[in-house]
Amino acid sequence: MKRFNKKLLTLSSAICLAGAINAAQADTIKIAIAGPVTGPVAQYGDMQKIGALMAIEQINKAGGINGDTLEGVIYDDACDPKQAVAVANKIVNDDIQHVIGHLCSSSTEPASDIYEEEGVLMITAASTSPTITEKGYQTIFRTIGLDSMQGPFAARYVVNTIKPKNMAIIHDKQQYGEGLATAVKNVVEEAGIKPVMFEGVTAGDKDFSALIAKLKRNNVDFVYYGGYHPELGLILRQSREKGFTAKFMGPEGVGNADISKIAGEASEGLLVTLPQSFDQDPANQALVAAFKEKNEDPTGPFVFPAYSAVQVMTESMKATGKSDPEALAAHLRSTSFDTTTGKLEFDAKGDLKDFSFVVYDWHADGTKSPAK
Amino acid sequence: MTETSLYVIQQLINGLTIGSTYALIAIGYTMVYGIIGMINFAHGEIYMIGSYISFIVIAGLLGMGFISLPVILIVALIVAVVIASTYGWTIERVAYRPLRGSNRLIPLISAIGMSIFLQNYVALSQSSRDVALPPQITGGWTFGDPSVFEVSFSYMQLLIWSATLLVMVLLTLFISRSRMGRACRACSEDLGMTNLLGIDTNRIIALTFIVGAALAAIAGLLLGLYYGVVNPYIGFIAGLKAFTAAVLGGIGSIPGAMLGGLILGVTEAMTSAFFPSEYKDVVSFGLLVLILLFRPSGILGKPEVEKV
């Protein structure tokens, strides 16, 4: 009996000790980074991942959040809506309350339903479909512009600078591509340009020879493409082979060095609307150097928006002293933030109040320069 | 010539090109079905692997400083055909032979498993991004008045047509004239009886997988050169289209697969030509449903005779 008591004593003191150590130790706040790690658009997932991880690393280096450290956890939704739902459920089950992502609008939308219901804070750095924030959700934000901003911006450039005679609008029938294409169509039609073609192609298709023959037959001199680079790259390449020489324009979904690998010379002169090149901003040069040191490419369009998504999330944690998503969401709406992508302010829907795009001339070596 | 007829000729050229490659892949489905009555769902992945191997070989040879294009293409062709055939043989060995004689659904599931395995294996070992190759065969002919409509026919398209034609002729000769070909035909008529007559049917079945895989690898090389892009997911859609072509032409019939491929390719091109291109798949698969309603065994398929 005596011995038993002794044992109990040591055990309980050990437990007390362990508790004390725990209390002294700083907590870890986990942040899920959800986007495509595999699949045809994995390179965009990479941009988001390196941006967010860099932000987490820098914030930890600077002392973390009131003594707590951040940890980034990568989840792969392969840009597939079904997998995105599974990933969202897994994040909830893993008890993570903060998400950077998802990437593709078609994945973000179903995932955001789950986050809202479970009270998880989600900030996407890449999804531009307007419908995501139209449901009046409380914990869903984004640090990138909307198709409803980018489409009209591109369309105004077409109307004022290109002034095409026969314009065609092609899209990939997906939420992102068709949304943009429709926005462009509406604005150019208002300005009196009637597109001669408005058609969808199937994402994943490889043969566009029939489409190109049709563009040629309609004497199209300008094509706006709503979609991603794998299809547009092939359309450009096959156009060149078939002697179809119209000018092409696409959204940020095509603005990726891979389009030059696929299309080669044919990608020279492609017009791309992109968010400002934040890596060119003098204020960000220390960060650019940090990316280069890790052998990462900071030029992708989603790298800095992902970085600032982590920034606004952690700034709010610091300001409120809490990591509770609802408190953070309220704080995000209430103030403005100085980030690597400029001064950010959120409206009631969780969208940025202001986000500017630039038209770039794409070059065959995968670089870009501002279009005149 | 009028503008419309030139336009139709152009779309016919486009359709026959894509149709030829459907036909090459479709033969693999039809041969396997003709003999063991199973659909080899991993066949599309063989096409994908053939494409990857030819890319690796071409890029490697170019990198080593070889400049003679015919030599590079022939080496790529041989390597792709040999390795893809090995994959075809292995699939038969691993996913089909151990299950022969079991319920018909079981090998179907194992083939789907094999297909998913190969797709992910390539995605993990080669990364899931698009891999691109600069155009190797450029140029072509154009005819028609440029102010009306200029029809273009590229050397690459000619290569696809002639390679497909040559392969089809060789395959037809092989099936109709050679000893092995005769054994194949015997197996397709009655597998059990052929076995009783002393022909090693296991070898013949392995052979059909190898021949099918070799043709898929040729299609992989040709389409890889034509489009200049591969990724691990191209096998799925190509396989689906080729399978449709095989069913359209009459599954089990080799001339049927050839015809089915060409019909499917031309239908797709013509639909894109005169309707919005998003209706392309609706029309070609609608055509499939119609043909199956009125000729359930396909265009050239033999009506199924109930064996007593």
TrEMBL record, chain A:
Keywords: Amino-acid transport, Signal, Transport
UniProt KW Transport keyword: yes
Top-rank lineage group of the source organism: Bacteria
Protein's UniProt keywords contain Transport: yes
GO biological process, one term: amino acid transport
Gene3D superfamilies named among the record's database cross-references: 3.40.50.2300
N-terminal signal peptide: 1-26
Residues covered by the Leucine-binding protein domain: 28-351
Pfam families: Peripla_BP_6
SUPFAM superfamilies assigned: Periplasmic binding protein-like I (SSF53822)
Family as reported in the entry's similarity comment: Belongs to the leucine-binding protein family.
Name of the protein in question: Branched-chain amino acid ABC transporter substrate-binding protein
Lineage of producing organism: Bacteria, Pseudomonadati, Pseudomonadota, Gammaproteobacteria, Oceanospirillales
Automatic annotation (TrEMBL), chain B:
Gene Ontology cellular component terms for the protein in this record: plasma membrane
Any one GO molecular function term: L-leucine transmembrane transporter activity
Subcellular location: Cell inner membrane
Superkingdom of origin: Bacteria
Pfam family, one: BPD_transp_2
Keyword set, alphabetical order: Amino-acid transport, Cell inner membrane, Cell membrane, Membrane, Transmembrane, Transmembrane helix, Transport
TM spans (from-to): 12-39, 51-84, 105-124, 155-175, 204-227
Mode of membrane association: Multi-pass membrane protein
Biological process, per Gene Ontology: D-alanine transmembrane transport; L-alanine transport; L-isoleucine import across plasma membrane
InterPro entries named in the record: ABC_transp_permease, BCAA_transport_permease
Stated family: Belongs to the binding-protein-dependent transport system permease family. LivHM subfamily.
Protein name, entry field: High-affinity branched-chain amino acid ABC transporter permease LivH
